Amino acid sequence: MSRYAALVIVLIPGIMAVMGIKWMRDTLFGVLQFPFPYLWLQFIAGLLSFLAGLTFVGGFIFYRDRKRNKVQLKYRKK
């Protein structure tokens, strides 16, 4: 059961990061999506969404690896 919970916890920010990439790509091609009135706003929202999702997924993986002592010595708990 906990594996499914962890999967859901990682999937939601992962989907958020994918949507951020899509919004940035659409901005480069000049396609304006519904909730955004301007292309520059769509790009900024996409960039922030991508960075937030990537940071969360990266932090989740780092926390898991740190707990199992699979990181370099300088990142291990003291």
Mind explaining what this structure looks like?
The protein has 78 residues and is an all-alpha fold. Helix 1 packs antiparallel against helix 2 (39-67). It has two helices and no strands. The mean pLDDT is 94. The protein has one domain (2-75). The longest helix has 29 residues, at 39-67. Keywords: Membrane, Transmembrane, Transmembrane helix. This is DUF2627 domain-containing protein. The chain crosses the membrane at residues 41-63. InterPro entries: Uncharacterised_YqzF. Pfam families: DUF2627.
**What Rg do the Cα atoms give?**
17 Å
Helix content: over 70%
Whole-number total of structural domains = 1
How confident is the prediction overall: mean pLDDT? 94
Number of helices: 2
Beta-sheet strand percentage?
under 5%
- Biggest beta-sheet profile: none
DSSP E strands, number: 0
Give the low-pLDDT segments. none
Which class best fits the helix and strand makeup?
A: mainly alpha
Principal-axis shape equals elongated
The sequence of SSEs as H and E is HH
- N→C terminal distance: 31 Å
InterPro entries: Uncharacterised_YqzF
Transmembrane segments: 41-63
Organism: Fictibacillus phosphorivorans
Protein name: DUF2627 domain-containing protein
Observed structural traits:
transmembrane helix, transmembrane, DUF2627 domain-containing protein
What is this structure, in a nutshell?
This protein is mostly helical and 78 residues long. Helices cover 72% and strands 0% of the residues. The protein has helices spanning 2-28, 39-67.
SSE diagram, text form:
Blueprint: H1 2-28, H2 39-67
Helix pairs in contact: 1-2
